[in-house]
Design brief:
Elements (H helix, E strand, L loop, with lengths): L1 H9 L6 E7 L4 E7 L4 E5 L5 E7 L1 E6 L2 E6 L3 E4 L5 E5 L3 E7 L1
Antiparallel strand pairs: 1-2, 2-9, 3-8, 4-7, 4-9, 5-6, 5-8
């Protein structure tokens, strides 16, 4: 139900929608939905994280680096590095923090 709720909310949103799927003492599994051209603004993480593209295509960007991630691609997000994510098409990603 969490992902269905996310996709329903995404229909009328002008920014990415994120929802926690499961959280434990040492991890958090988050789903992030994007419509084409949406941008998750620049931010940083203080704990190791992995981005997984479940559907669609996104561009992961750092100051001097970018990587296009397609369906089923993964990327280990470095700690304390500013980054953003832009959707090239409607996309659904999972983010594992911890």
């Amino acid at each position: 139900m969490i992902i269905k709720e996310l996709l329903t909310q995404l229909e009328t949103s002008d920014k990415p929608i994120a929802k926690s799927i499961r959280k434990g003492e040492s991890f958090n599994l988050i789903s992030i939905g994007f419509k084409k051209d949406m941008i998750l603004k620049e931010h940083l993480t203080t704990i190791p994280s992995k981005l997984i593209v479940v559907k669609g295509c996104v561009v992961y960007k750092e100051i001097d680096f970018s990587s296009t991630l397609h369906e089923y691609d993964t990327y280990d997000i470095p700690v304390n590095i500013k980054h953003s994510v832009e959707a090239l098409e409607d996309s659904l990603c999972f983010l594992i923090k911890g």
